[in-house]
């Protein structure tokens, strides 16, 4: 089975053709669906070659969709209702689903959710200490995101150590424009840093990460900012961009190396939150056997890996400086500590393809 994987994000549309052996013989990267014409998308898909099924990465599946699902009209309606929970991503995915259905109406489509991997979180990890009505009637709880990436990298790490199923405790660091951590025990996610929305947790490219809710209330009350203004600022003008004027970690690191005070503070803030988050995830997992870095920053920013792990010796984490400096995924960068540390490419397309095969009953 040849599977077309459609990853429609807020800023890009990534198309990957995955064959039966998990090879990717053809790819296409386009601007976001809102910035690309239907004809351009049709041409790109046609040029990839024939396919037998389509897998769509969808950010939010809510509490209902805890695994991949065959797409139909009801599923699309349900996903549209979740748009307020992921306003930057859900509309793009829904439009991509509609476009691909028009291009290949007879090809089965499967939705694979970033939230699904986190459906195994214990109730204590998903519950916020807020009024019952908010939790029960409005559904305010931790959902978690980047699940496809965390599922892949945690599985790949266990493969690399030839895990025998004894219950490896893994912390995965997915560090890209968006960033999150996950604690995975024996293949099951037990905690993660993103929460009700993808805004929570680590410092990101343009998103603030965790922020005292009292600060938001203060900004609206005393700063006289509207909800729309606060939302726009926290989603698109915070994070590295808010601290330095650029969302690009490589640029921030270069400026920090040249002595720019704002960039140095941004790196220190980013690493402080990252290091604390890794420790928290290790606590949720009951210990740490494997640490994984992935995503654009996690795979390419050796300095961030170095600085993040420098303060984690108490957990048994050390890395080999030479191997870290020249790391090319997938590889191990473990130093002398008992925790094995890896740099692993985020292959969400393979996780989506896996979900498509399972849903359609195709043998692996």
Q: How would you portray this structure in words?
A:
There is one protein chain. This protein has 364 residues and is α/β, with parallel strands linked by helices. It is built from 15 helices and twelve strands. Helix 6 crosses helix 15, helix 10 packs across helix 11 and helix 11 crosses helix 13. The model has no long low-confidence stretch (mean pLDDT 95).
Shape: globular
Order of helices and strands: EEEHEEHHEHHHEEEHHHHHEHHHEEH
Indicate the structural class: alpha/beta
User: Which runs of at least 5 residues are low in confidence (pLDDT < 50)?
Assistant: none
What number is the mean pLDDT? 95
From the N-terminal CA to the C-terminal CA, the straight-line distance is 10 Å
Strand order of the largest sheet: 3-2-1-4-6-5
Number of extended strands: 12
Helicity, as a percent range: 40-55%
Beta-strand content estimate: 15-25%
The biggest beta sheet is recorded as: 6 strands, mixed
Total count of helical runs of at least 4 residues: 15
**Cα-based radius of gyration, to the nearest Å:** 20 Å
What brief labels describe this structure?
364 residues; six-stranded mixed sheet; single chain; alpha/beta; 15 helices
Please provide a brief summary of the model.
The protein is α/β, with parallel strands linked by helices and 364 residues long.
List the helices and strands and how they pair.
Layout: E1 3-8, E2 12-18, E3 26-31, H1 38-48, E4 53-58, E5 69-70, H2 73-81, H3 90-103, E6 109-113, H4 123-126, H5 132-136, H6 147-160, E7 169-175, E8 179-185, E9 188-192, H7 213-221, H8 227-236, H9 239-244, H10 249-257, H11 261-285, E10 290-294, H12 295-300, H13 302-310, H14 321-325, E11 331-332, E12 340-343, H15 348-360
Parallel strand pairs: 1-4, 4-6, 7-10, 10-12
Antiparallel strand pairs: 1-2, 2-3, 5-6, 7-8, 8-9, 11-12
Helix pairs in contact: 6-15, 10-11, 11-13
